[in-house]
Amino acid sequence: MLKEFQEFISRGTVVDLAVGVIVGAAFNSLVSAITTYLLNPLIGLFIGQIDLTDMKFQILGATFLIGDFINAVIQFLIIMFVVFMIVKMMNRVRRDGSRSKFDQSGEEIPDPQTEYLQQIRDLLRYQQRNNNNNRY
């Protein structure tokens, strides 16, 4: 059982996942600090309140923490933007890695073998149509 665990933990995907979780947690802390200590005071200057976390209202004894919600939305948007940029970069790297299949305009250059097979297919269809027309 220990050997199976060692094989499982030494797989590249498990290690990659662990690194991703650790980096993600650190990034989340960084975004939280940026939002709390930099963006909130800046936004607070424009709305006349220094700390957004103090923004709240009460209805029938229930307290709604608008400032905390705004913080969470800002953090979410920052993280999603960074994830979007990473995915965009990775797609560009993959696309550039297979650049030989694309010309300068981004159009896919057809594989010669595929072109020949398509021509054979079209020729067979043409011959089949002519044979069907000649029968009647």
Automatic annotation (TrEMBL):
<feature type="transmembrane region" description="Helical">
    <location>
        <begin position="12"/>
        <end position="39"/>
    </location>
</feature>
<comment type="function">
    <text>Channel that opens in response to stretch forces in the membrane lipid bilayer. May participate in the regulation of osmotic pressure changes within the cell.</text>
</comment>
<dbReference type="InterPro" id="IPR037673">
    <property type="entry name" value="MSC/AndL"/>
</dbReference>
<dbReference type="GO" id="GO:0005886">
    <property type="term" value="C:plasma membrane"/>
</dbReference>
<protein>
    <recommendedName>
        <fullName>Large-conductance mechanosensitive channel</fullName>
    </recommendedName>
</protein>
<dbReference type="Pfam" id="PF01741">
    <property type="entry name" value="MscL"/>
</dbReference>
<keyword id="KW-0407">Ion channel</keyword>
<keyword id="KW-0812">Transmembrane</keyword>
<keyword id="KW-1003">Cell membrane</keyword>
<keyword id="KW-0813">Transport</keyword>
<keyword id="KW-1133">Transmembrane helix</keyword>
<dbReference type="GO" id="GO:0008381">
    <property type="term" value="F:mechanosensitive monoatomic ion channel activity"/>
</dbReference>
<dbReference type="InterPro" id="IPR036019">
    <property type="entry name" value="MscL_channel"/>
</dbReference>
<dbReference type="InterPro" id="IPR001185">
    <property type="entry name" value="MS_channel"/>
</dbReference>
<keyword id="KW-0406">Ion transport</keyword>
<comment type="subunit">
    <text>Homopentamer.</text>
</comment>
<keyword id="KW-0472">Membrane</keyword>
<feature type="transmembrane region" description="Helical">
    <location>
        <begin position="59"/>
        <end position="87"/>
    </location>
</feature>
<comment type="similarity">
    <text>Belongs to the MscL family.</text>
</comment>
